[in-house]
Hints:
The chain is mainly alpha-helical. It has helices at 4-39, 42-49, 53-59, 63-92, 97-109, 114-126, 130-160, 165-180, 194-208. α1 crosses α6 and α5 packs across α9.
Amino acid sequence: MTSDTDTSYRARRDGQREDSRNRILDAAVDCLVEGGYVNATTPRIQKRAGISRGGLLHHFPSRDALLVAASEHLARRRIAISVARAEQIARSHPVGPERLTQMVELLWSTFHEPHWWAALELWTAARTNDEIATALRPTERHLGGIVRGAVDAMFGPYYVGHPRYPQVRELLLSSMRGLALAYTFDRRDPTRDPNLSMWKDLVLVLLDGQDQ
């Protein structure tokens, strides 16, 4: 029979493990975003997390597995924040042009956040690193479903039910992802990108029936 003391001890131990894991993931993300894949080394991550090498290896036996997990960790967090922001917009604008244009702006902004740059570092490294590529494939497929679900939540049931919505969603994601790559070397204000107004017009025409 398990005593209350044993249960309390296990709960504290599990909490400490989760805290250590999150510290490692946060440190890995910071190193990946700030210095790129090459500089996101195990010693740097270990030092930044304030954890022993043994503690780090207990959670993540390889550097690449750690970096992939860190990228997913950040992406999930940022997706949740974006959905929460979308819910705030939806309360003020349940349907209509204002909601659509603000959702396009919100979606575009996600391609300029740390989780995007962290993912991009890993995608680039995966081109010549089979271990990262193997680790990334299932993670990216899973995240792809989460991202699409988050975009659906942003636009809401009214627009998701539109027959053109699936094509609009994929067009926005693909074109925004491609254009965001240029910001690796052309550091300008993304809110002034001329494509942003084009995406807004496109969404209004295809989902709201407005002939711009």
